[in-house]
Structure formats: C-alpha cells, structure tokens
Write a structure and sequence with these properties.
The complex is a heterodimer of chains A (238) and B (214). Chain A has helices at 44-52, 86-91, 100-104, 110-122, 138-151, 168-184, 196-202, 225-232, and strands spanning 3-13, 19-29, 33-37, 59-64, 71-74, 156-160, 188-192, 205-210, 213-219. In chain A, helix 4 (110-122) packs across helix 5 (138-151). Chain A is built from 8 helices and 9 strands. Chain A is of the alpha/beta class. The radius of gyration of chain A is 18 Å and the shape is globular. Chain B has a domain at 19-163: MetI-like fold. The chains are: A alpha/beta (238), B mainly alpha (214). Chain A binds chain B through residues 49, 52-54, 70-84, 92-97, 100, 103-104, 106, 134, 145, 148-149, 152, and chain B through 108-121, 123-125, 127-129, 132-133, 135-136, 207. Bound molecules: adenosine-5'-triphosphate (ATP) and magnesium ion (MG). Adenosine-5'-triphosphate (ATP) binds next to helix 1 of chain A.
Amino acid sequence: MGTVLTIRGLSFSYDGRRKILDGLDLDLSAGETLAIMGYSGSGKTTLLKIIAGLLYPYQGTVKTHDAKGGIGYIPQNIGLVKNLTAVQNVAHGALGRIGTLPGLIGKFPQEVFEKAYQLLEDLGLAEAADRKAGQLSGGERQRVAVARALMQNPSILLADEFVSDLDVINAYEVMELTTKICRRNNIALIMTMHDTYLVNKFADRVAVLKDGKIMNEMPGNQISIKTLSAILGGGPVE
Amino acid sequence: MVPPNPEVAAEAATALAETIQIAFVGTVLGFVFALPFSALAMRNIFPQILTTVVRAFFGFVRTIPVLFWAVFFVIAVGLGPLAGTLAIAVYTFGYLSKIYYEAFEATDPEILDAIRVTKAPRILILRHAIIPESMNTIISQLLFMFEYNIRSSTVLGFVGAGGIGLLMISYIESLQYSSLTTALLFTLLTVVAIDLLSGYLRKQFIPGFIQKPK
Ligand SMILES: Nc1ncnc2c1ncn2[C@@H]1O[C@H](COP(=O)(O)OP(=O)(O)OP(=O)(O)O)[C@@H](O)[C@H]1O
Ligand SMILES: [Mg+2]
C-alpha cells in the first residue's frame, strides 16, 4: 500500500500569535481509514482545511502522492445549497471536471447524473434524490454531502465530524456505508470524530491531536474513553 | 381639481403605459448588468484590488439620484422614454449590485469550501452555488425594485424623460387641474395593482411564506 499523504512539521496560526498546529507529522496510506480525535478546539477542522488546500499560508510540508482524483471534503456543517435538489448538490462534486462552458449553460454530462443517482442509491437515499436539500433531515443531508464528495472520485476523503449530529442508528449507518465505499474504491479516509465506539468499529487507525501535534497513534480498535482521557490529560475515567 | 376629467382618460392611459414600459425595461436592463457585475465585488472570491475598484464604482453610481441620471440622459440622447429607461437602468444597476454582492458574500462558506476542493472554476461556483443559494434575495429585491421604479419613473417626465410625468407637467402648466386628477388617479391605481401583483409573485417564488392549504 502506497502512501498518499505525507505531512511534516506542519505549523499554523490564524492570528500570527497563537499556534493552532505546531510541528505536526502525519502519514496516510492509500485506502486507509484514519480517525482523528481531540478536544473541541484542538485544531481538527483546521488540519483538514489545510490538507484540503483551503487554508494557507502554513509552515512545513503537506504533500499528496499520486492523488489523481484530488481531495474530497465534507465540511463540519455540511454546506449544501438549500434551494437545489439532493441530486443537483451531488452533481456539484463534478464541477471541477465538466469544463467551464458546459458548466455555464448548465449542461452536465449524462454520466454525471447517472452517477449522482447511483451514489444516492448506494447511500440509501434514492427516495430523496429529487427533493430540495433544504427540506431534508439532518441525516439525509449528511448523506448528500458524502455523495457529493464521492462524486469527485477523490483519492483522499476528508470528513469533518460528519456523523456527530446524527442519532446513533443513523450515525452508525452513514459511517458503515461511507467506510465501505471508501475501502471498495481504495479511497483514503480521514475523519475527525468524538465517538470512541464508532472509531473502534470503523477506523483502521486513530491519531490523537493535542497541543498542535499528533500525541499518540494506535490501531482503531484500541481506543477507549479511558485511553483517550489518559492521552489528553483529562481526569481519571473508570 | 374635482371631479376628474374623463376626457383625458385615453391620453393618460397611453402615457401611463409608457411609464410602465420605462420602469419595466429599465429594471430588466439594470438587473441583467447587476447580476454578473456584483459577483466581481465578492471579497471571498476575487482579489481585493478588483473588489475595491468595483465597489467604488457601484458607490459612485448609487450616490447619484435617479432624477440626475434622467437629466444626464436627456442631454445625452434627447427628450423621451429612452432617456428615462436608461436612467432607471443605471439607478437599478447601482442599487441591485450592492444588495446582490452582500447576499452573495453571505453564502455559507462551507458550500464554497466543499466545491472549491473540486477545482471548479470560480464562475461555475457562482453559477451553481452562490446564485442558487441567493435566489430568494435576487427575486424579492428585483420585484421591490420594479415597484419602486414604477413610482420613480412617473416623476422622470418632469425633466422630459418620457411617460406620464410629462403629461402631468403639461396639465399643471395649462392649469387643467381636473385632468391632472385623472392622471394621478390612474397612477395610484397602477401602483397599487403592481404592488399586489408583485406580492403575489413573491409568494409564488419564495419559500417560507405561509401558504393557504389547497
Ligand atoms: N477563522 C478563524 N479565525 C481565528 N481563529 C479560528 C478560526 N477558526 C478556528 N479558530 C480557532 O482555532 C482553534 C481550532 O479550531 P478548529 O475549528 O480547528 O477546532 P476543532 O478541533 O475542529 O474543534 P471542534 O471539535 O469543536 O470542531 C480554536 O481555538 C478556534 O477558536
Ligand atoms: Mg471542528
């Protein structure tokens, strides 16, 4: 398995004073599912945005290798166009490859819509495909955002707390579907999350972010609230 | 002034129709230019040098009242409805551009982030995300502008820019006050009708209004 992402000595600050990330190192293999955990405000979203190329300047290096399809990104609060239907939002994932002119006149290739419907079906959303995004439930919108990111055919998918607003059943389902699709298509997945149970169940590896660095890494099935608390220096947990 | 003079009804109606045309064509023209140009003022999409220049230009256009534009165009293209239409168009352009770029800039940044990573060209992000997301503002402000322009274009005739204002001035000058009353009544009815119509259209286009169950 080749490496798709190498991060070395990454430091970042929003205001030029307080360092949110401070000499962070991280590697990611093709097709791997990595969970990133850490306190709220520890810089998880910041890290994902930097990897996605949405935030700069930073110090250090962030290199992707052989990431042909680019990087897909599921923002923490989803970010769908409410006035458009689910399938139109999914088609947005193809905006980088359909060409400016066809895009301007709104002529998406047939392949794009076929794939968009297929992705929604794979994610259990066939019913809602033609409904406006603004009228979908939280869980349905979450799935649309996953489909939009997959529409891009990414080599790396970044998912920012993409199930934390869902009820446990929906969270489990979306997580299972997404990790399955990523494994099947050899997409490396980085997901930030808080739920140790889901990490145990679905992540190959977990990295804990603290003080701007990865403090600890371990196989996904070895994390518990107890170990997490010990790493983060929280109070004793029984 | 009372009673209104029914003999000038046809004359007043024709002039009023011209006023509505001036307002309608002017509003559409201003809108067609405002939509793409306002995008150039978005600080979260375009570099600051460009947005600053564009905003200064909008500010300049907006500072000048519509009546001054009417005088300017009467001098430039002569008396008549063309001058009025251009004045309304420029004024509409200045007003809508600002409203639109503010609505565009308020687009949820996470929508932009999720599409930016696809490497989509900026114009496609505008076309497929920013404009659809701002559609409610785009339509409701366009309707508002049309209502507003109906009112302001009645006045444009005072400076010779066509429509019912021109007729009103001539009635005033020749002391035909009951004819003036007819013209005013017609104008009032039109303004009310247009307000009702745009209120109806707003309900059709804009979700979030409570609609009566069918
Ligand atoms: N645009 C910004 N400007 C300035 N500071 C910011 C900005 N965005 C985030 N921060 C700060 O950077 C720190 C890290 O934020 P970030 O959103 O990366 O945390 P997080 O780990 O994703 O938290 P959460 O789990 O709550 O989502 C926080 O202290 C936050 O206040
Ligand atoms: Mg976050």
